[in-house]
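hey so u asked for the seq, here:
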Amino acid sequence: MSHTAHIPSHRKPRQRASKSALRAGVAGGFLSTIAVAGAAGPAQAEPVTQTIEMPTITDGLSTAVAASAQATQQVALDLETQASEDAAAEKAAKAAKKAHAEAVRKAEAKKKAEAAAKAEAEAEERAERASRTSERTTLSASSGSSDSGSSASSPSSSSNSSNVSGSAASIVAFAKAQVGDAYVSGGTGPNAWDCSGLVQAAYRTAGIDLPRVSQSQSRAGTQVSLDNLQPGDILYWGGAGSAYHVAIYVGGGEFVGAQNSSTGTVQRSMDYDRPTGAVRVL
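ran it, structure tokens below
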């Protein structure tokens, strides 16, 4: 027996003739049916007459669009308002900064001006003292030896301000009441004076209007000797008509005057700073 006699064959068995014929018949019948249907022509379709109503969505859409537009407009308005507020705040900050800088500048300028005025007043005081010293030296040299004894004491010192009456009393009382007030160049009261402003105000209490400046006040009345003074007389330093300082004689060999920014308004003895001359208005 052969070694391969029991090994089955792997070839497919042949199909039977009956099955092949059956399949061929089925296929031919199918193709014949298609051919007959094609020859008969397409069948006429029945027209569709039913109407389908679609839902309306435009109402809801328009409302949504309107709401969206309103919201957008509000957002734009809010942004514009915020921008305006930010701009106003920035402008206010710049204005405040500028105002602060201006205030600082003015304060510094005022401080410098006050310092300059103080220095000028001190310089004027030194110049006045030097001029008065020179004036006294000149007068002493020209007076002669015969007057040297009488000039050492003033006969008018016997006049006591307590015995003054009438207009002179009013003038003296007003002048004494201002002692301690400040000296300010151009001052006319009520708490700060310059020399001629004080004299003018004192005489005004007696109903007398004097010129404003010391040069004119030194020629406002009759020239009198310093040895024959009466309370209320105007003392002056410098020449008559060119005086640089005036004061009021109050009796007892003393005067009241707005001297300078350092001393203010004081009552002093005539020996402190002897005047050049005097005039009597009353």
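Residues 58-143 form the longest helix (86 residues). The mean pLDDT is 76.
lmk if thats what u needed
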